[in-house]
Amino acid sequence: MVPSEEKVYLSYDSPIHRNLNGDHIDDVHPPEFLNTITTYGLPNHKLRLKVGVPVMLLRNIDTRYGLCKGTKLVITKMGRYAIEGRVIYKSNVGDQVFVSRLSISPLDVRIPFKFQ
Predict the structure, then answer these.
(1) Which domains does the chain have, with CATH numbers?
(2) Among its keywords, does the record have Nucleotide-binding (predicted)?
């Protein structure tokens, strides 16, 4: 309902290879399958955002700058690999911050393989 253009961000899911000598593939799960996995602490494959929309951080990114779990931001600009926002709740209210693309792995022990 916010009158601004929507931008869609997609995850880039890939298996974590433990094989260091390269003689075999550790994981045969294709990215299309990895994109369907939803679990605690892992964002959905497709993230739709708009300028002016409030968002909340779901994990600690940089505690020195107040980018902690539960911090609420209003999106002010969206780039290809980063989002700019203004802090509206928790510490550092009013600060302009950047949230860049980052690599995360699910911590759910029910998933029998590792991916990022």
Answers:
(1) 6-100 (2.30.30)
(2) yes
Contact of 67 with 60, CB cutoff 8 Å: yes
DSSP label at residue 113: S
Q: Residue for token digits 């892992």?
A: 42
CB environment 71-81: b (16+ within 10 A), e (fewer): bebebeebeee
Contacts of residue 112, Cβ cutoff 8 Å, sequence gap at least 6: none
**C-alpha span between 104 and 18 (Å, rounded):** 16
pTM for the whole structure: 0.70
Convert the pLDDT of each residue in 2-28 to its tens digit: 778 899 887 777 666 665 555 555 557
The count of residues in the chain is 116
